Amino acid sequence: MADHDPGPRPTYALRRAALRDLLVENRVDALLVTDLINIRYLTGFTGSNAALLVYAWDTTEDRTVICTDGRYRTQVAEQSPDLRAEINRASARRVVEIAGEWQTGRVGFESHIVTVEQHRAFLAQATGLDLVPVSGLVEQLRMVKDAFEVHQLAAACTAADTALAALLERGGLRPGRTERQVARELEWLMFEHGAEAVAFETIVATGVNSAVPHHRPTGAELATGDFVKIDFGAVVGGYHSDMTRTFVLGHASDWQREIYDLVLRAQRAGREALAPGVATKAVDAASRAVIEEAGYGELFVHGLGHGVGLRIHEAPGIAKTGTGTLLDGVAVTVEPGVYFPGRGGVRIEDTLVVRKGGPELLTHTSKDLTVVD
Ligand code: GLY
Ligand code: MN
């Protein structure tokens, strides 16, 4: 199919300006960025080897430098034409050397990313520099999605919605097919409908396997009366969708209807709690309370959701232990589940964007209980 409409243009220079404000707040003169996803977010560069140096006061960006190796000489010029590019295989060490040549002073490094060995190598290179550990600054910016990012997320969610509809339409969920066959067919359909990659290993879990939250598809065959839990996503423009739907094959029992209705009510409570200024742990609590009141709190064995974007799991976590509050434009999943070991389970998950007037739903597949004939 044709390349998807990229929508609004990405705003890399604005993102770097926002990072510079954080560098001033964190009292470092520059940040050495070595996480490749953070580099992609700040520059558009998608190569597999890079380091980036961003200066706190460098509003004209004369000093902003990206370093990569010879394989990416053309690509870096195309993807980051506004930045000074250095070509050196030891990209991070070269950037530390440049910071030293420019007598930078306090240079932050991403202490949640850099290994002990890399740190040792930086220290050996860092003549006259003060290397300062900082954590999660770019990730903090990445939580709030701009118009370009929401466009990519929506396109990824549409690819997943369309693929699932096509799977059901072709009779892809029927007794006798294996979990693996269903997973591979759904993945193929996502590619047919615009995905550039799958967001993570597709989960198809039938019958008792549906009680395993992150079951890996096996040769188990779908059977009449089974719950079939499908958790999957597409990647478009680097952005990940994430959606779970649970179906019943042939005929739903009273027990299945009761559990499904409970999880659906908990999922609605979670979605309705999403608003700017709300603590992430309060969103988890709003959904979890529905399941606890029904007496099944012990069977909801994971957090309610997570941020989603250039990575399938990113900040903020939405869990009992979550910290911080939501902001307008934060993209998250809401995915409560109830799992009866040895019997079956239900999870229902959407990808949404937090908005002042109520969350923007990006995954549109129906959440009504669907009994597949
Ligand atoms: N939907 C997969 C996950 O959140 O881990
Ligand atoms: Mn998820």
TrEMBL record:
CDD domains: APP-like (cd01092). Residues 15-144 form the Creatinase N-terminal domain. Gene3D superfamilies: Creatinase/methionine aminopeptidase superfamily, Creatinase/prolidase N-terminal domain. The keyword Transferase does not apply. Transmembrane segments: none annotated. It comes from the Bacteria. One of its GO terms (molecular function) is metalloexopeptidase activity. Keywords: Dipeptidase, Hydrolase, Metal-binding, Protease. Its EC number is 3.4.13.9. Residues 153-355 form the Peptidase M24 domain. SUPFAM superfamilies: Creatinase/aminopeptidase (SSF55920), Creatinase/prolidase N-terminal domain (SSF53092). This is Xaa-Pro dipeptidase. It comes from Nocardia otitidiscaviarum. The gene is pepQ_1.
